[in-house]
Amino acid sequence: MTTTFDVTGRDVVVVGAGRSGLAAAELLRARGAHVLVADSADRIPAASALQAAGVDVVAGPHPVDRFRAADLIVLSPGVPSTEPAVAAARASGVPVIGEVELASRWLLGRIIAITGTKGKSTTTTLVARMLAEGGIPATAGGNLGVALSSIVEQSTPDAVHVVEVSSFQLETIDTFRPWIAVLLNLSPDHLDRHASFDEYSRAKARVFENQTAGDWAVVNADESSLDAITLTVRARRFDFAVEKVIDEGVTVVDGFIVECRGGAVRRVMPVDAVQVPGRHLFADVLAATAVALIAGVAPEAIERAVRGYRGLEHALEPVAEVGGIRFVNDSKATNVMAARRAIESFERGVVAILGGHYKGGAFEDLRDAVASRAAALVVIGEASDRIAEALRGLVPIERATSMADAVERAYRAAPPGGVVLLAPACSSFDMFTDYAERGRAFRRAVNELAAHVAAGKE
Length: 458
Fold this sequence. Notes:
Blueprint: E1 11-15, H1 19-30, E2 34-39, H2 47-52, E3 56-59, H3 64-69, E4 72-75, H4 84-91, E5 96-98, H5 99-104, E6 110-115, H6 120-133, E7 138-142, E8 160-164, H7 167-171, E9 180-183, H8 197-205, E10 216-219, E11 236-237, E12 239-240, E13 249-253, E14 256-261, E15 264-270, H9 279-294, H10 299-307, E16 317-322, E17 325-329, H11 336-343, E18 350-355, H12 367-373, E19 374-380, H13 384-390, E20 397-399, H14 403-413, E21 419-422, H15 435-454
Parallel strand pairs: 1-2, 1-4, 2-3, 4-5, 6-8, 6-9, 7-8, 9-10, 10-11, 12-13, 17-21, 18-19, 18-21, 19-20
Antiparallel strand pairs: 13-14, 14-15, 16-17
Helix pairs in contact: 6-9, 6-10, 14-15
């Protein structure tokens, strides 16, 4: 946190007029900057409100001269730093930072930053719940729900800010320094934006970059692939593991989630306190528990938070049971690893709905899970042919033209007592605005199917 950071009278360009960009523009204007919001879309829905607040607005092609003349450029997460006008400004010496970096410079209180390929939202939400149960003032935001810039003006020195951070946000940090930084896992993702998995991994590892020996790093000890990128971490390590024996951190022993510290083992809560399904969500509970223990939350408060938590929307979310078939919405499974873990959350009889906009990863990595757990697959969207080719010969595969069509085909293909699982392994942008709209479309299609079945039309 750099409280001396001052933008009074400075010309600042905010690139991107989404949630993060608008929050950054509002914060910058409140701190005395001259602000231009630029978005490559043909129109900016919030343009009138921005102009009324004294913010300049430009839609369409970016004005390169305005970018080069700026004192600072703030990028929304959806805008790559390689965007030509941004790159030209940087080449001219203009500093370029992200919205999270901007907000962190003024934020009062300590930061807990959570990143990884899968599980960020669940872990962020759980940590905030645990802190609140323990009587610690906490907010949850960042890539999850509320932009960090929206929290700055209400922040206090005693608050703890639990921040979900993506690789896009970490690409554009400079001084961002979490008190506790969490790396949940890593697998190929966002390779439509990052040049390679190595580049993606380096971006994630930046969450530890500015930490010192007085800070904490929480890392998934079950994933040996994380060892190489965490070798240079200066913060104290306090890991978590579902399977591995660890000396310092949170793991499982004899049916209990336990804290291992200084050679002693302390029981935190029984495993059956965890109400969310799936091994990967269980790992998220362990990660959140590790963070809460570092923050000083008592085991009793941690257990209360865990017992009361039933999961997030679109994350292995139970939707309905129709004709003895369960429908589960995991629209947040936007990469191959997430989809694999979702399928592996069920014993067998799964009909998985896969597909969308391909953003990297090998669908072949789903073969073992599909072979052992699935009864059939329904593929949808731009990646349909790629998925069908990668998983050919394992189970019947049907192609669907819409979410409603996919739900109906999956229902007909499901065995008695089976599960229809939306776990796309892809982003949603070929057919939907985001994963949430896709998940809502799935729920709507399931409810319509349930109504038809109840009316005897199936």
